[in-house]
Known about the structure:
mainly alpha
Amino acid sequence: MSxxxxxQAVVLGAVEGVTEFLPVSSTGHLKIVEGLMGxxxxxxxxxxxxxxxxxxxxxxxxxxxxxxxxxxxxAWVRGLRDREERYHHDYKFAWWVICATVPIVLVGLAAKPLxxxxxxxxxxxxxxxxxxxxxxxxxxxxxRHKRGEDDTSFKDAMLVGGSQILALLFPGxxxxxxxxxxxxxxxxxxxxxxxxxxxLGIPALTGAGLYELKDALGTGAGAAPLAAGTLVSFAVxxxxxxxxxxxxxxxxxxxxxxxxxxxxxxxxxxxxxxxxQS
Length: 278
């Protein structure tokens, strides 16, 4: 019998799609919803399921930014053959994304027992939601928002990519929140910070999903729930990406900061009252 039903998979896929690229922590929201539905958040099949349905959200990024990705990959391939092409920003950016993914891969492999163990606690999620809100608020207030996407550098990519480790170790901090906040602290504007977060998330999240696939299928998650959750995640994430890019072009991150604090406090309350088990 599957550890997750198709109905639960659809709900979780929708939650993943909405929250993966918003700076509110998809992992945190998935764990909260799983807890409310009585799904064990520390079960190998459930952890694997959550990682796999992220691939649906990543597929949405690939489709939404297909022209940008094709341009960057084309420049990278040309640069491998032609020295002159290596001065092109797109060629360098492709390498930056690759290099910026290495830290999170190494930490993810080394800290897997902690990530699947003590750090998977909903208490950690609640605390990380609130702490991450403070970081985001400071970043949005102090960042000068003066640099665009074409102004990014190798240093920017490494710092922003490395910040994904915070979300990996502390579910609730939010990968998008960590990367966007770091980019804002580096004085990128909100749209550039958001787009950089998207591109840096592609290899890290895709790799995590593929790595967990064997565990998700082998421990009872079920192929049908995985397919349903991934498809729903794709559709909802695509709509979320389009909305977020329009939103950040005209608004600050204050709404996300307030929302995260409310959810974090609510989660602490539910845990303290025994409604949810950590």
